[in-house]
Amino acid sequence: MILTGNTLTLKQMKEILLEQKSVSVSEESWEKVEESRAAVEKIVKDNRVVYGITTGFGKFSDVLINKEHVEELQLNLIHSHAVGVGEVFPESVSRAMLVLRANALLKGYSGVRRIVIERLLEFVNKGIHPVVPQQGSLGASGDLAPLSHLVLPLLGEGEVFYKGHRVEALKAMTKEGIFPITLTAKEGLALINGTQAMTAMGIVGYLEAEKLAYQSEMIAAMTMEGLNGIIDAFDQDVQIARGYPEQIRVAERMRELLAGSKLVTKQGEIRVQDAYSLRCIPQVHGATWQVLNYVKEKLEIEMNAATDNPLIFEGGKKVISGGNFHGQPIAFAMDFLGIAIAELANISERRIERLVNPQLNDLPPFLSPEPGLQSGAMIMQYCAASLVSENKTLAHPASVDSIPSSANQEDHVSMGTIGSRHAYQIIANTRRVLAIELICAMQAAEIKGKEKMSPITKDILEEGRKKIPFIEKDRVFAKDIAVAEDWLKTSVSITKKKVNFKVETC
């Protein structure tokens, strides 16, 4: 995978993260890096006053630094800013952060030496992923705390994930024959002034959310069969009459998933119309796809953005302190992502209720094999309701908050990293809700008659039954939910034309 600083896509990131593709750099990008670095060295030599190169940081921007202290300045920056706390980011997020930071530096506006970028990519290619705490970023001035922890291993400090273990960075580097580097003028600042933590978390979240959105349609199709849903609501003319492309495509996929099913009905056969949680699948799920498309667009812009400060132009003739490190665009996108995925859980939980409530269907109460003696799926619906309620709290926008920092020099921040973390939690919760719907939908459809299912949903059911048995008596359903959740995360995907059980883990 060749990085240029300008052409990285989510598809490529998926291959780098899921398939462990290696990365390299275009020769043209190296030329830009060398030119930018030469500009920094001239600034130091000429004793020009330039933020972060010959001055302190933040409120200390007016404090001049002698050129003999530039290395100490950069080291102090990394040490003092490495204040991350809490649970650490998933290893895939750390890997994404390395790639994104290198890609941003390759644009040639940051003034770092070639060795710095080479070391970032060497970590990627040898599977050395820094341990980065999730909490501590305000999402403006960049993701200062998380990125400082990302940089520590380059210096031979901190911890990394390496070959399935969490170890001291120097230990992994020694095994791979990698030597620590010493940061020089501007390099520490260039490495941590950026939005790569929130963007990396956003990428991993988006990839899982996109997959989950397809799976939600697959599961909803099986629920339609268990409830003898009315397929007329998915008619193409209905969708075209409104005009949203995403709604049209969801309805198209639902028709393909249910093609050949003898369990779905036409309007008037059993009832005139279904409840919204069935009838409005194209409208609600389609709206989530609209958000996913928006988030994808913003992530792909940010993945190729120069987000540090200051930026160097025209070979150093123009060096400008701006605000590209401000995470507001990604903060909005992450909040939007969380809200959209939370809605997939909301509507899924309502379908679960229709599957288990005997007043809303003609199935055994709570899908129980012996109603009364056996509780069946009764409390699984409780669990789904709890997860949905938690999502509503997590979906509160992080981006509407701001707390001044650095003695009010940095007086408005994005909280985008919090938004990205909350979105990821919502995605995990939604997967659990959909896992519960999957269990209930399989039970209901099989009660109605497996032989009457569509070829696609029947294949899904048969694959699912290898992991989750038919409910013949009460058991510890937490185990079933965990198995279904893992199946959704690692195995089940769906394309427009067929269901594919290829493993795809983030």
Question: Mind sketching the topology for me?
Answer:
Layout lengths: L1 E2 L6 H9 L5 E2 L1 H19 L24 H12 L3 E4 L2 H15 L8 H12 L2 E3 L2 E3 L8 H8 L7 E4 L2 E4 H7 L11 H6 L3 H31 L9 H7 L2 H13 L18 H4 L1 H23 L7 E3 L4 E3 L7 H29 L21 H17 L21 H34 L5 H11 L11 H14 L2 E2 L4 E2 L6
Parallel strand pairs: 1-2
Antiparallel strand pairs: 3-5, 4-6, 6-7, 8-9, 10-11
Helix pairs in contact: 3-6, 4-5, 4-9, 9-11, 9-13, 9-14, 9-16, 11-13, 13-14, 14-15, 14-16, 15-16, 16-18
Query: What shape does the CA trace take?
Result: elongated
Return residue spans where pLDDT drops below 50 for at least 5 consecutive residues.
Answer: 500-506
How many alpha or pi helices?
Answer: 18
Q: Please provide the ordered H/E string of secondary-structure elements.
A: EHEHHEHHEEHEEHHHHHHHEEHHHHHEE
What share of the residues lie within helices?
A: 40-55%
InterPro entries: Aromatic_Lyase (IPR001106), Fumarase/histidase_N (IPR024083), HutH (IPR005921), L-Aspartase-like (IPR008948), Phe/His_NH3-lyase_AS (IPR022313)
Modified residues (2,3-didehydroalanine (Ser)): 141
Keywords: Cytoplasm, Histidine metabolism, Lyase
Protein name: Histidine ammonia-lyase
Task: Describe the fold and architecture.
The chain is mainly α. The protein folds into two domains: 2-194, Fumarase C, Chain B, domain 1 (Orthogonal Bundle); 202-500, Fumarase/aspartase (Central domain) (Fumarase C, Chain A, domain 2), CATH 1.20.200. The chain is 54% helix and 6% strand. The strands form five sheets. Strands 4-6-7 form a three-stranded antiparallel beta sheet. Strands 1-2 form a two-stranded parallel ribbon. It has a two-stranded antiparallel ribbon with strand order 3-5. Helix 3 packs across helix 6 (144-151), helix 11 (245-257) crosses helix 13 and helix 14 (328-356) packs antiparallel against helix 15. 53% of the residues are buried. There is a cross-link at residues 140-142 (5-imidazolinone (Ala-Gly)). It is found in: Cytoplasm.
